[in-house]
Design brief:
The complex is a heterodimer of chains A (about 240) and B (about 70). Chain A contains eight helices and no strands. With about 240 residues, chain A is mainly α. Chain A has two domains: about 210 residues, no CATH class; about 25 residues. Chain B has one domain. The chains are: A mainly alpha (about 240), B mainly alpha (about 70).
Chain lengths: ~240, ~70
Amino acid sequence: MKRMRALLGKHIKDFCEGSSSFLHSVEEVDLKPFQHESINTPVEEFVEPDDMVDGPQEVDSFNEEDDETDALSLSPESIILPLPSNIISVKHRAGMESLTSVERELRKGQANDALEGLRIGLANKSLLLLRDVNQSTSTKQSTRAWSSVRNAQSQILLHARSYQRAWVALNSVGTGEDLIFYQKLEEKHLVVVKDITMAKRFGQGSETLAWFWRVGPSKDAITGEWMEECECTELFSLSHFKLI
Amino acid sequence: MEERGERLKIFNINHQRLPSLAQITLQLCDANDNAISPPDIVDWIADGIKAENDQLVVCIMLYWFWY
């Protein structure tokens, strides 16, 4: 944990140093205030973590030992990075069009990755609950199964928060179209797939999955096929007409 | 999901993948008109997004340790 935080601190420091090439002297007041991601696992689906006795001690020891290091490494996870979407100062935003357009595209990629991870995580959790947890026959198997569920849960949360960050950024650098496609993710969406865990349940037909299960590439591919089919039909009918 | 492909349609699921951050990064770097998105800028912003993702990993791990 200590090493991870140190590496993150270094990564952020390098990034902030690199920002001077693209942005002119951004200060803390020019950036958005830090906000914790509010999204969490729904209460009814939350699986409590194992007892981890050594955890807090390790974090404490990190804080005590690293007093001499610079302020950046103390809590690198709560630093706001000087990305265009995080800049609120009007004077800085004026000359950032190219940066903003690049960030917009990249944030879409981040959102896509997060949604893919989210779908895989939720499907995985559902399968684990159905197969490993429900079918475990011993305490050992059950412990392992619940541990896998916890891992899946933290993966889901990670992707959900990553999506939330991408969505907040798109709110600031994206267009209206982006926000129609990338909708807001809510806690109620982070539920297991009941079609897996509770198949053949009463009222299954009237329930729908969350919006992110239906998003995909634009319909161009499908429309293309239809258009090809349409053109073929048209050609066929024309040739048929000529023959007549 | 790709394995199951079209059969997922009955659940109203779209199995086709959207372009990932890595793919978009490459696309922007390879774009013919580098004046709009110079590779340096693309790299720098992509690096910032990865750093933000790493922040989230640390936050979640800290939460599990403190719980």
